[in-house]
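Student: I would love a firmer grasp of how sequence relates to backbone shape in proteins. Thank you; the sequence and its tokens follow:
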Amino acid sequence: MSLISCPHGAPPPPPPPAPEPKASRVRTSRVADAGTPSTAVRSSVPRASATRVPGTPAPAPVRRSPITKPGRTPQAAYRPYLLSVVAASDGRIEREPALEALGRRMADVLQRDDLAVGPSGELRWRTAAQKERRAMLDAGLLRSGGPGVWELTRAGYDALDAFRAALSASEAESGDAEPGDAEPGDVEPGDAEPPTA
């Protein structure tokens, strides 16, 4: 038996040869000229919009906001309601009770498609609310108080106060407030204050 046939004693195989560079392709297009097709070569000069002067900053990337489909409540609309639900529970609440309370508070706000079951098997409004909760975590308005527990931060209380102030200002301008109307910031007095540590 020779060493070459033994996998343990054989030297490693040589690396594969590097591929040869391919020639660049020339773009061609068919142009109809007097009813007969002919071949014309397109210019390979880059377009003016694709060129950038060296030393100039690159343009900022285009950020697209999530598109809200017709018949659905925008994700950002959940924020004041989520803040008020957590604040009404002394700034700390578990996931399921929070979503149940949110569903009751937003019953008049949720649209037709929000009440449908999504591809995940959960109601679409619940999925949107949890996505907004995640965005609020990223923004520092909420923090995780443990598995399945949502806690309001100082910034969350400040955001709730700002929503309330904006709501009061808009109601004062329009005079639309009716006694007993439920709004995102409606909680009992003192509930929106952060617990003192």
Summary: The longest strand covers residues 28-33. The mean pLDDT is 76.
